[in-house]
Amino acid sequence: MKSITIKNSNKEITIGKVVCVGRNYADHAKEMGNEIPDKFPLVFMKTATCMINSGENVVHPDYSENLHHEIELVLLVGKTVKNATLEESQSAIAGYAVGLDMTLRDLQFKAKDKGEPWTFAKIFDTSGVISNFVSVDEYSLTGNERIYLSVNGEFRQEATIGLMLFNATEIIKNISSRMTLEAGDLIFTGTPAGVSRVVKGDKLSGGIENIGEIETAIV
Ligand code: ZN
C-alpha cells in the first residue's frame, strides 16, 4: 500500500515517511515498565511498505513469538513543516485516522536490552494497519473521543484521546524540530494501556469515535 484516501474525497495521497511516537500515554509507559516521560517521548519509524488497509490481514512473522497490537490515532501531514510553531503545527494536520502499530514485543525487548534500535520489531510487512482518513475540514478533535481495540470480541484497550501526554499539535511541533515533515507523511501518536499478545486466527477490531473503525485478522 503506497497511497491513502480521505473520506468524501477522490484525491489519492502517496504515503511518505511514517513517524511513530512511543510512551505517549502514562498508563502504557507504566505497563511496559518505563518512566512516564517528562520531556517529548521517543520516536521511531515505519515505512510506507509496512502499511495495509483495514480489512487486510496482518501476516505473523515466523521469527517472533510475541506479536502485540497497539491501537493509535494517526495524523496525516498536509504540508511541509520544519521547526513549526504550535499554530503552524495545527495547520499542518490534514486528517485523522485510526491505526494499528503491530509490534514484535520479543524482538523489541531484546533490542532494548542491548541498546539497539527497535527497527526489526516495528517494520515487518503488514505491521501498520490504517483506516480511511477524515479531513480536518470535516472533523475537529475534541480529546473526548474514545479509542478502543478488541480481540475476538473482547475489549483489550480502551481510553480517550485526551489522555495522550502530548497532543497532535505538540507532536508535530516536536517532531518538526528534528526533521522536516512533508505532505503525505503519517504520524502514529502512541498507544494506551492494554497491549497484549495475538496469535494466528485472532480477529482484531477497533476504532476511534467519530474518526473511523479498523478490522484485521492475524494469519
Ligand atoms: Zn505504537
Brief characterization of the structure:
With 219 residues, this protein is an alpha+beta fold. Helix content is 16%, strand content 33%. The chain has five helices and 17 strands.
Which whole number gives the mean pLDDT? Answer: 95
Provide a count of the helices: 5
CATH fold naming:
Fumarylacetoacetate hydrolase, domain 2
Spatial extent as radius of gyration: 16 Å
Low confidence ranges: none
- Just name the CATH architecture: Alpha-Beta Complex
CATH superfamily: Fumarylacetoacetase-like, C-terminal domain
SSE sequence, one letter per element: EEEHEEEEHEEHHEEEEHEEEE
Q: Would you mind describing this structure in some detail?
A:
This protein has five helices and 17 strands. The protein is of the alpha+beta class. The chain has a single domain (3-217), classed as Fumarylacetoacetate hydrolase, domain 2 (Alpha-Beta Complex), CATH 3.90.850.10. Strand 12 and strand 13 (154-160) form a beta hairpin. Helix 2 (86-92) packs across helix 5. The mean pLDDT is 95. The chain binds zinc ion. Zinc ion (ZN) binds next to loops.
